[in-house]
């Protein structure tokens, strides 16, 4: 795992994926290319994972989510000339998290933050997002698509028994934990995870697809 870039503001971002494999994007008001994933700074004494959960709740109201993976390295971007950034920082260094949404949409509240970060939201494919964000963040989103897209189809096929994750979900997270411990690239597990997430023909549990 890389280290955050010295001199840059430490930040986190969240790719929140639903059971259709789409991610939650918010629209920032008064911006030409307004769509963005939830993100924000890391507070003193806070871990990146804790910051990601807090920022997600502050910006969207969502607390029904769990971290299933994170980016392979810190990702950086520079503020463009004339941009009103944070203090004297030249840009931000970010750790991104892939999180699975367990809610039904009723808990989404964009007015949690004062003032609100977003004026509306939309579920999008991660592949289409780079063209919808401000140009100076585009490379970040292109890299996120490379790292996280292989796992979106897996989320679509996860089996749930009511509100409790099934043994398939437990196996899925165990696979990711093993990858983190061995520093194995996330993309290398894509094929195995997709095979793992296919239900057996005799499985009588309901596959969530709505």
Automatic annotation (TrEMBL):
InterPro entries named in the record: Nudix_hydrolase, NUDIX_hydrolase-like_dom_sf, NUDIX_hydrolase_CS, NUDIX_hydrolase_dom, RppH
Entry cofactors: Mn(2+)
UniProt keywords, alphabetically: Hydrolase
Domain of life assignment: Eukaryota
Residue ranges of the TM segments: none
Nudix hydrolase domain location: 7-146
Listed GO MF terms: bis(5'-adenosyl)-pentaphosphatase activity; guanosine-3',5'-bis(diphosphate) 3'-diphosphatase activity
UniProt KW Hydrolase keyword: yes
Gene Ontology biological process: nucleoside phosphate metabolic process; ribose phosphate metabolic process
Pfam families: NUDIX
HAMAP family reported for this sequence: Nudix_RppH
The name this protein goes by in its record: Nudix hydrolase domain-containing protein
Species the sequence originates in: Apatococcus lobatus
